[in-house]
Amino acid sequence: MAHPPDVDSDITFEEWLALVKMSQKGIKLDFKSTEAAVTAFEILKPQISALHVPVLLNADILEGPDGRKPTVNTETFLGLCNTIPESTLSLGWTTSPKGKVVSPELAYNWQNVINICEVIQRFKLKQPMTYPVRAILMKASTLAPFKWLCDITCGTLTVWSADSDGVPLTQLLLVRNKFPKSHVYFDLPEPVEKEFDPFKDDPTSGLEGNTLGSCTKVLHEADWKGFVDDAGDDSRIYLGTETVVLSGHHAILMSRNPMNISDGGEINISGQVQFVNSPKVCDLKTNEGLEIFLHATIADLEHSSGVRCFIGVDGTASIRSSGSDEKETEKTASGPKSRIYAFHITHTDDTVSLKITEQESSDREIPVCISTEFNCKRPASVCAHCVIMRMNTANLFGVIQDLDLLVH
Description:
Helix content is 19%, strand content 31%. The chain has nine helices and 20 strands. Strand 8 (236-239) and strand 9 (243-247) form a beta hairpin. The N and C termini lie far apart (66 Å). The model is unreliable at 377-382 (pLDDT under 50).
């Protein structure tokens, strides 16, 4: 038992467990190699019932920002964890070695959190979960991904810092402000903890108004529902309180209440979509992206019925519609290639317009608002319709935020 760089100790794991049995404190086992994990679990498993304290099993199982390949094998470690359901799991990412200056541009991202969510789902882990995250890598842009991850897995964050990181107080306060006090824990060097401690119960008192930024819209369960309409498909959908992540054309996000447009009225649908590669997918097709359907049912989606708005990973924006006369029209525009687009759909009596704005490198707007007309004289059962969203590929995850639906 030792902590790197040490590899040896004056006490064995068996001896240490014997002492733990006489203690009332919880224990944390931090594994740095697959071999150590296998050996420790062989010793721990027969004795777990005699330990009347919480047991936390920790390992970095995925590669993170500027991180090296994990020294603990993901499959082996999680398979071992499944043999001790009484434990709490602490699953993290490798990062820059302690002592190395961390680039200010580095931060956790959606790819990191989606990858670990997929691993948790694949191994069907049921234990309580916490995610150790390095404070210097927790920027404002990372709060939404981790809020979503904790929503999906009922997890918590454990925020840590190396002595040499020099993490700004503002970053700690942003994290504390985003999460309930019972959902985030801090493991900080003593000088940083002393600076942070006066603000931990009221983090906004240490933040300027412009530092807080804009709040992400809440995704209300009363307005939206998500499901996979084919159990045999590899599609999946994860609904958080602010964000929905979906992949595959059988993963459906659908408004709960049918809508109809009165004379002179309109429907406005707005939000932001970020495209994230599925693990091990490098080459993407130009026609892959997010589909938003109006005047269609689930059964209609494969038959070009109704109105289909499309936002492609290559910057394509298109609207295709087919009326009761079965004539199909489509209008397409191309803009800057990006991974993040804001979108706005306006649906009036007889027109639909789609506008997308590239969000990744600048706030420039794609210089086109495309629209197409369609025959709105449909049966009442079709005119009163739900909004349906899906990805048309399993190669990408669509991360949808700030979703808003207004009927005037």
